[in-house]
Write a structure and sequence with these properties.
The structure holds two protein chains of two kinds.
Chain A: E1 12-18, E2 24-30, H1 32-36, E3 40-42, E4 64-65, E5 80-86, H2 89-98, E6 100-105, H3 112-115, E7 126-129, E8 132-135, E9 140-148, H4 152-155, E10 159-166, E11 179-184, E12 190-194, H5 199-210, E13 217-220, H6 236-248, E14 252-255, H7 258-262, E15 269-278, E16 284-296, H8 302-314, E17 322-330, H9 344-362, H10 366-371, E18 380-381, E19 390-391, H11 397-408, E20 423-435, E21 450-456, E22 462-466, H12 475-487, E23 494-496, H13 515-542, E24 550-554, E25 559-563, E26 571-573, H14 574-583, E27 590-595, E28 602-614, E29 620-630, H15 637-656, E30 692-696, H16 719-731, H17 742-753
Parallel strand pairs in A: 1-14, 12-13, 16-17, 22-23, 29-30
Antiparallel strand pairs in A: 1-5, 2-6, 3-5, 4-7, 7-8, 9-17, 10-15, 11-12, 11-14, 15-16, 18-19, 20-28, 21-22, 21-27, 24-25, 25-26, 28-29
Chain B: E1 16-18, H1 23-33, E2 37-40, H2 46-51, E3 59-62, E4 72-75, E5 78-82, H3 87-92, H4 94-99, H5 101-108, H6 113-118, H7 121-126, H8 135-140, E6 144-149, E7 152-157, H9 158-161, E8 162-164, E9 167-168, E10 175-182, E11 189-195, E12 205-214, E13 217-226, E14 233-234, H10 236-242, H11 249-256, H12 259-262, H13 274-297
Parallel strand pairs in B: 1-3, 2-3
Antiparallel strand pairs in B: 4-5, 5-10, 6-7, 6-10, 8-9, 11-12, 12-13, 13-14
Helix pairs in contact in B: 10-11
Classes of the chains: A alpha+beta, B alpha+beta.
The complex binds flavin-adenine dinucleotide (FAD).
Chain lengths: ~750, ~300
Amino acid sequence: MFASDMSLPNMLYGRVLKSAHSHARVKAMDVAGAEAMGAVTLTPDEVPDVVYCPRLVSIPEATYRDWRVLTDKPRYVGEPIGAVAAESEEEAQRALEAVEVEYEVLGASFDALDAMRPEAEAIHERIYLEDDLLDVESNVGCALDITEGDPKALEDADVVIERTYRTNRRYHNQLEPKSVLVRPEPDGGVSIWSTTQTIHNTRLLIHDIYGIPVGKIRVYKVALGGSFGSSIHVNPVVNIAVGLALKSGRPVKMSYTREEDIRDHCSYQMIFKLKLGANRDGKLAGGRLEAYLDIGAHQIQAYPLLGCVVGWWVSLYKLPYVEYTGKAVYTNKVPSCAFRGYGNPQITWVVETMMDELAGELGVDPLDFRLNNYIGEGDLFWGQGPSVKSIIRSCGVEEILTKGAEMVDWYNRPKAGAQTGRFRRGWGVGRGYHTSSAGAPVPSSIVDFGGAMLKMNEDGTFDYVSALMDHGCGTQDAHVKIVAEELCVPVEKVNIIKADTGTTIYDVCTHASRGVYSGGGAALKVAGKVKTQIREFAGRILDAYPHAVRIRYDEEGDRTVVYAEGIEGREVTYREVAETARHKNWGTVSALESYRQPSCPPHFTGYFIEVEVDTWTGKVKPLRVVAGADIGTVINPLLAAGQVHGGMAQGWSMSLLEDTPYDPETGDLVNGGSIANYKVPTSNDLLDLDDFTVFFADTYEPTGPFGAKGLGEGALNPVAGTVANAIQDALGVRFFELPITPIKVLEALREKEG
Amino acid sequence: MTINKVNTHIVPIEFEYHAPGSLDEAVGLLERYGEEAQILAGGTDLIPQMKQRKAEPKHVVNIKRIPGLACIEETPDGFRIGALAKLRAVELSPQIKEKIPLLSEAAQSIGSVQIRNLGTIGGNICNASPSADMATPLLVLDATVHIYGRDGAKTCSIAEFFQGGGDINLGRGEFVTGFTVPFPPVGAGSAFEKVGWTTFDIATVNVAAVVTLKGGKIDHCSIALGACSPAPVRGVLAEAALIGKEPSAEALEEAVEFIAACVEPRERWRRAPPEYRRRSSKALAMDALSRAIERARRFP
Ligand SMILES: Cc1cc2nc3c(=O)[nH]c(=O)nc-3n(C[C@H](O)[C@H](O)[C@H](O)COP(=O)(O)OP(=O)(O)OC[C@H]3O[C@@H](n4cnc5c(N)ncnc54)[C@H](O)[C@@H]3O)c2cc1C
């Protein structure tokens, strides 16, 4: 059951009134027509005058705020400026069309560099950071500069390359459009069922906006129909629906249509100017990166992202000198938010492209060049940004690259650039990583901890309760396996209990590939505590020392037994322990714990991809993929391989297909919000499973639950760079703009070959 | 701007629904309501258009209650295919697969199984999109369109049926009841090619070709191109260049050079610039002709 499937008696259907202009002031809004039809309406002056940030993952000092529930100064086509609720979706739609709006249209910018020009219209005049009201200059929402090392290292480099790159702006295209059901409660509170990656942050934001006491807001876990980062922040529709429910006093359901969803969130488009230097000894000398993040009309997590972009960059390869200047720029477009990899696929595409170019200049094999420069075990790592530093303790980069190279016979691959026929083939290599969580030994600007509750039932089974959301990737399944492993029971003995904010302790969010590493860490911690109590109680029953008893699963009897080894008759089952504890009034075996991971270990990935380019149609086809991943202990091999297949599919799509350009005439998306005009590959466009090999490096992460790390994002990050390198290998043409569409391929070939 | 009016969740407009049970009843309704009426077949084109308010008919005339319009029948001259025959039925019909494989190949390329289970061949043609995938096969096979109106039944050649710019040759009150698709010449090889951005995409260009060989030379050749002119067109110059020639690589290369002169892609078509369509129509023509020749060669 997804939020969009739910309904309640007496429920109203809500619809959002969307701005028709990319930048305007709402001078007047007449809702009389809608109200005459019996609809409940909500206008900007009826929502609390609170300026908020919908994402509550960073600490307040790192959280810029520029959002309102409904705005009277819309900044992109589709921005919510009002809402209606009625007895049916049809009636709501008619009421929506009856609302009359008068706009004063303002100038708009659709490109980050354009928006920074002095003559560009200011998109936000002032925004908040904690209690400070900041002036926005040149539409730059926030900025970050970092310099480390000696600039001479780069100046003196033997080879230097400098280029400008531009990524695409991708729509998440998750299966489930954003949906919410809100029920006002008699005590003045609200119950919420919504599409979210974090129930606790949803509760906190509703508290911040509406002032309802935290405990009277109950946010329930509902299955999530995919997200890819688009519900790390609380989706605007949730805040609007709460307003409608409070005003009408009735349950309100809102489910975005696909057109509304496409105008609700997308990835960050980035413009990079990168300079990298290397020396003849095959080592990198340093780099300079200018990054312009097109964040759209509002900040969701622009400032932390500026830190991550530099973090992702400097944690790929050792750079003796680093100079970074990052700017997050407002444009009159759909607000950008995290999208699987959180800037990492973008910067990794750029770096992996340039690594190949540098290797070419130096005359070394691109694979050797990578092996010579990567950051690995024992090195300082700050992928999650300058405030999240830790030391790498497990690393499979070398294994991934050398084993993959063997599997594809890398060093004997056909020489590039020699082909002239219609169909040309090429191989690319690319590598990358992502952090598993945002843990660190000291506090940082990012909140990263979770928690769980585990209790032993009277029949010796266990109930596991946690606030952590599962996106449908099997995260909770991994938790169950971790608990079952620790307690020596089969997985069926561990139940996942439906939960909500009232019955769970805080978990920050399922994002940053932290579900298994960080969330699983909390699961392991409660399982360990429960195990200690079981030993204690069993020790009492057996007249044995708790630390000396052993535990084994007895398959024949399908029961777990605690026993004193070698001493006959000193055996007791879990069930007997639980029963005795009840009869003797010892209490329930249970644990409730918060847990913070001490680091955010990178999970490493590497791809070898062979493509074929049809130089007559510009279409690129994948022929073969070998992908290696170092995720520490592999908890579920099939689901893990599935993550890699999904990463490849999404990366392939990022490389070749996806974008959401704007029509400056209308200010709206060129695709008109239609999913029929937003293409992603189907299984027919990808590889035969026989041509796609996934292997896992043999590593163990000492800080992870049973040695595990994350995988979700690392599975995607190197793909675009690898595909681009393979296309270059086939055609001898490099592309500096994503996506590399058939149209661009033909244009480039015509330029090169006529 | 229509931002608050358009969606793909519900049909936001009001209309009257009719479900005539006979051809004449349907003609009566269509005559009475004229421009305000629109025929509903599978609805895979019409319903999305209504949701997006690209079509706002006041009267929707569902013709699926009219008996006999979904037939697929073999006749001495070819196949009689009813307007309401599902694309999936055209794709899977064993007789069509055997006798006119080009039709099932083209049908199979359309959308997904779900779309093909709803969408009809009549809807595909009458929607009058330049990219309709059934149009190029019907063109190369010189199909006949059966039309019903106030004066009863009449026919029209498929080439005359497409009038370009989204127009088709139907008068007030008229609608399509089916098609006669002649068998290709004995020993013919055929092929359908399509390029889109993904396999689940409408065509950026599609091409159908039919070829026969006689004494090692090309005897019959017909080729049609879709989505690169305001209406699907025959590549007559390329056809003429091949007839009577040996099917060599050079002959093919020469012939497809004429393709660019046969197509007229429009600048304002958003999904690809004219230059891209010109180039890829040539590539697809080459592919379709090569495969058709290859298949014709297999004939003893
Ligand atoms: C997701 C998706 C993918 C698609 N992919 C493809 C594709 O790959 N290739 C492709 O060619 N098309 C594609 N289509 C378009 C569509 O499915 C086909 O064109 C289909 O054949 C239309 O048939 P229908 O019966 O659904 O037509 P309808 O939607 O019922 O009708 C289409 C139009 O024709 C008129 N009409 C229908 N029947 C008659 C008749 N007998 N006489 C006169 N007028 C009539 C209707 O009034 C309407 O204007 C796709 C559509 C969708 C939604």
